[in-house]
Specification:
InterPro entries: Pigment-catalase-like, TAT_signal
Shape: globular
Protein name: Ferritin-like domain-containing protein
Radius of gyration: 23 Å
Number of strands: 4
Helix content: 40-55%
Number of helices: 9
Oligomer: single chain
Strand content: under 5%
Strand order of the largest sheet: 1-2
Order of helices and strands: HEEHEHEHHHHHH
Length: 351
């Protein structure tokens, strides 16, 4: 495990280069450009004819064009931190019945963190293997939170309000209903059994992998990029464990396989239909269940080149907000009031 204090020393050496950061960044996913600002154009005319002319009707006052600050490495890491808060809380509650400490959810400047709705300890006594996996993943996710907070220092955002409830009004139930895994009057509780816990984890892990891969091209600092690659690799291991165990259990309970297909299809609908880019692993079918054509195993959701898919900020937000349409995409689902990002472009998921 990386010592956060050492991470600060390593990352501090790159601070001098931050002033030269690009003002414009182009995301790898979907060819969307992040603009550092916008300007209003105005013009005036002049001639030498002093003949009085009728005064023109006054033009309406122009509405200033909203501007977005340039996305920095800190912005990207804070977006990752928001996702790590969500994953860490889910796994820690499932393993311990409690989540992150107050000190681990406050901002780097000391502002209090948000609240967690839901969360409960899972009884793994009947499936100690899944319990062992859950404990390891929980420790990794808590370490990711600690590492990112240490790297960001005073710039680290506080944890936003998070909903990981398995009740009728919980985000997991809303996600399962939207995917068609359960009916409109049913609930989905990821803490009620090891199998349901795995399905809950399945919702998160694949999204985490694609989010880190999509964010990688936005990072300008190689030290940060290497750290992000390390977290991406850990998330990919987690996703592989979850998918493999679900597949094995699905051999005896096909409903688990069906559920993963429905969840994957729902995530595809939420993240839209980006143009295919086989080199960067981007495509309209960037989410896949545990079986492919001919009922073959599909434990690695990859494109024709065997590459993992990427998602940009907007796609990730659409999934965790459980909201693909509408003008207001500033919260919902697992983040009722939205993610905490200083840069409005990332806060509303429009990257």
């Amino acid at each position: 495990m990386i010592d956060p204090r050492k991470a600060i020393e390593i990352l501090a050496a790159a601070d001098a280069r931050r002033a030269a950061r690009r003002g414009f960044l182009k995301a790898a996913g979907g060819g969307v450009v992040l603009l550092g600002g916008a300007s209003l154009l105005s013009a005036c005319g002049e001639d030498n004819d002093f003949t009085p002319a009728p005064a023109p009707a006054p033009a309406p006052s122009p509405t200033p064009t909203p501007t977005s600050a340039a996305v920095t490495d800190n912005d990207v890491l804070n977006l990752a931190l928001n996702l790590e808060y969500l994953e860490a809380q889910f796994y820690l509650y499932a393993v311990n019945g409690t989540g992150l400490s107050e000190a681990m959810i406050a901002s780097g400047s000391g502002a209090a963190g948000g609240t967690v709705t839901g969360g409960a300890r899972v009884d793994f006594t009947g499936d100690p293997v899944v319990g062992a996996y859950a404990r390891e993943i929980a420790a990794d996710e808590a370490a990711h939170v600690a590492f990112l907070r240490a790297a960001l220092g005073s710039a680290a955002v506080a944890m936003p309000n998070i909903n990981i409830d398995g009740g009728a009004n919980g985000a997991f139930t809303a996600a399962a209903r939207a995917a068609g895994v359960i009916g409109g009057n049913e609930t989905f509780n990821p803490y009620s059994s090891p199998e349901n816990f795995l399905l809950g984890a399945f919702i998160f892990e694949d999204v985490g992998v694609t989010a880190y891969k999509g964010a990688a091209p936005l990072l300008t600092n190689k030290t940060y990029l290497e750290a992000a690659a390390g977290i991406l690799a850990a998330e990919a291991y987690h996703a592989g464990i979850v998918r493999t165990v679900l597949y094995a259990k699905g051999m005896a309970a096909s409903s688990l396989i069906t559920a993963t297909t429905k969840i994957s299809d729902a995530r595809d609908l939420l993240d839209g239909t980006p143009a295919n880019d086989d080199v960067r692993g981007i495509g309209s079918d960037d989410d896949q269940g545990l079986v492919g054509s001919g009922n073959a195993a599909n434990l690695v959701p990859a494109n024709v080149n065997g590459l993992a898919y990427s998602r940009n900020s907007q796609q990730v937000h659409n999934i965790v907000y459980l909201n693909a349409t509408g003008a207001n995409r500033t919260g919902g689902g697992f983040f009722p009031n939205g993610t905490n990002n200083p840069n409005a472009t990332l806060r509303v998921g429009l990257s």
